[in-house]
């Protein structure tokens, strides 16, 4: 097959794939998503585990100033 015919065939196949829209079975999709949701909810709790860092919150707060001192920076 020549290069022109090969390119035309590739273009035609690409166009067919781009505009191909199969029939979607929404009820099957809903069943699948519903099964995944019920399985996930039974496996994991509603609230994710979050560590409590409140004891470390103010431990190092006095070491760093939140204010930026303009005089201490060197510009240029």
TrEMBL record:
<dbReference type="Pfam" id="PF11273">
    <property type="entry name" value="DUF3073"/>
</dbReference>
<dbReference type="InterPro" id="IPR021426">
    <property type="entry name" value="DUF3073"/>
</dbReference>
<feature type="region of interest" description="Disordered">
    <location>
        <begin position="35"/>
        <end position="76"/>
    </location>
</feature>
<protein>
    <submittedName>
        <fullName>DUF3073 domain-containing protein</fullName>
    </submittedName>
</protein>
């Amino acid at each position: 097959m020549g290069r022109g015919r090969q390119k035309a065939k590739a273009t035609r196949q690409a166009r067919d794939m781009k505009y191909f829209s199969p029939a979607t079975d929404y009820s099957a999709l809903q069943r699948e998503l519903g099964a995944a949701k019920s399985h996930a909810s039974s496996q994991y709790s509603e609230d994710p585990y979050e560590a409590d860092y409140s004891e470390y919150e103010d431990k190092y707060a006095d070491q760093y100033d939140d204010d930026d001192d303009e005089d201490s920076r060197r510009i240029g």
